[in-house]
Amino acid sequence: MKKIKLEISGLSYSQTQSGAYALVLSEATGNRRLPIIIGGFEAQAIAIELEKMQPDRPLTHDLFKSFAEAFMITMTEVVIYNLDAGIFYAKLICKLNGANEVEVDARTSDAIALAVRFNCPIYTYDFILSSAGVLMEGEGSVEKALGNALPEPTEDTSSSSNDLSRVSTEDLKEQLRSAIEDEAYERAGKIRDELAKRK
Fold first, then answer.
1. Which 3 state secondary structure label does DSSP give 146?
2. Which of 10, 87, 94, 103 has its CA 20 to 30 A from that of 194?
3. CA–CA separation, 86 vs 132, rounded Å?
């Protein structure tokens, strides 16, 4: 299977889950976004490295990097290889002494926190982006991603109840379009999941 390179495009506080954050990964050569809900600790670890901040003492992910380097282990890439029941699965691809390649299973949030420290690429597969990605306007379209045309906008439904199961399919499609335009990827992901259940 061909791997698709991802880049970190955003990290924001979750408005629906207390203490959680939405990490948004974008397709490097496309217009799909992959929103992933992560914990506060992992979000902090990613943000600190992205902002090049220097904590007084090493964080857990910094310790892991130092430990790996001390034993001549390098991390060459991270692969988000599966999605099952809303849970993303990732693995670290590491090399020992620049030779033997080893795969290590990891939580996706930890894998990305390490990827930014080792400055290594993040990949996934098309089937994951197709099922969990959000298509941005541009070369592709939201309509294409959903498989049929969206209705013309009628009224603002973005403040509808959080219980998406009670919202009509047409209203959900409109909410999805609005969420993507507002770059509210976490909400877009929840709406996408609800629409997928109805197929």
1. helix
2. 10
3. 9
d(Cα 119, Cα 81) in Å, to the nearest integer? 19
Residue 108 phi, psi dihedral angles, 5° rounding: -60, -40
| C-alpha of 123 from chain center | 11
* Distance (Å, whole) CA 62 – CA 8: 19
User: In whole angstroms, what is the distance from residue 46 CA to residue 109 CA?
Assistant: 8
* Start-to-end C-alpha separation, the chain: 26
Query: What is the b/e burial string over 146-176, where b = at least 16 CB atoms within 10 angstroms of the residue's CB?
Result: beeeeeeeeeebeeeeeebeebeeebbbbbb
User: Which DSSP letter does residue 157 get?
Assistant: -
Most confident of 16-20, 67-71, 184-188: 67-71
Question: In which residue are the tokens 């990949």 written?
Answer: 123
pTM for this model (two decimals) = 0.68
- Are 76 and 88 in contact by the 8 Å Cβ rule? The answer is no
Domains of the chain by start residue, with CATH: 3-131 (3.10.690.10), 137-197 (no CATH)
pLDDT by residue (tens digit) across 92-119?
Answer: 999 988 678 899 999 999 999 999 999 9
Q: What is the residue-wise DSSP string for 6-24?
A: EEEEEEEE-SSSTTEEEEE
- When computed from its CA atoms, the radius of gyration of the chain, rounded to whole angstroms, is 18
